[in-house]
Every structure is written in C-alpha cells, then in structure tokens.
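Checklist before submission:
- one chain only
- standard amino acids only
- sequence pasted in full

Submission:
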Amino acid sequence: MTAMLPSLVLALLCLLWAEAEVPVQPGFNAEKFAGMWHVSAAASNCTVFLKMKDGMKSSIATISFTPEGDLAMKLVWPLMDRCQRFELLFQQSGQAGHYMAAEEKRELRVGETDSTREQDISFQLLQKLRELIPAVGLTEDMLAVLPKSDQCTKAIR
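Returned file contents:
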C-alpha cells in the first residue's frame, strides 16, 4: 500500500459534504495514524484555500486522538513571513477512519496509508489523488502540489 498521508487526506479537508463516497482505509488503525505528517498535496473547494494555493508550501500536521476517539489536528502552514497555526477537531462518525466537524460541514476520511512519514509524494499517490478529485465533485484546478519546505518544522512542537 502506498502512503496516503504525505499528501495527507487533508486533500479533502475543506470539501463541503461531497456527494460521492470516499472509501476509508480498511482496518484503519488510529494508533499508527497518530503523529506528525507532511502535507505535500491538497485539493479543496474552500475559497480561502483556492486563493492561497498557488503560494502555499508543504506544511506539517500533527494528529492525535481524544479519549472519546475524536481526531485532533494541529496544522502549521508556512506563509511568507510567518508560520500560521490551525487547530481542528473532528468527531468520529462511527466508521473507523471517517471523522466529521459538523459545525463547519467538513469531513476527513483516511483513504489509504502505510504510516510512512515522508515529505515526498509518489507519482502513484498523486495519480490516485487526481483520480479521486472528480469523484468528489472537485476539478483539477482545485489541486495544489506543494513544494517542499522545512520553514515551520520547529513551530509544530
């Protein structure tokens, strides 16, 4: 299995309730999923994302789980002059690997991961992401393949 998370399933983070079902990883293991990940590619219909995507660089996300099983995510995005922090909480949906943030109608689905933590995105993984984009109602211009950056590595801790 290829790693889905170097390009992080945040690829669909801002997707507003997609009409298509995105399959989640069979046998999803939250313990293996927890930790630091590099965000190397993302696709979204979020207007803020679309305005910023051409100037974005790879970022870092730290995933943890609450005692209730909810997914907590801390993101650090490199901007021109600083590192922007975001904290998000996704409630478990009842299906392992599928989380929802009801107040903003966002969802996160872990599509596929082998728990590797590399910053590079493979051609195969990028191809899978490109195939998934139209299936969830997005277009290719909503995809950003992010150049490598270690600008905010220390800011995540």
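Reviewer check: Residues 9-156 form a domain with the Lipocalin fold (CATH 2.40.128.20).
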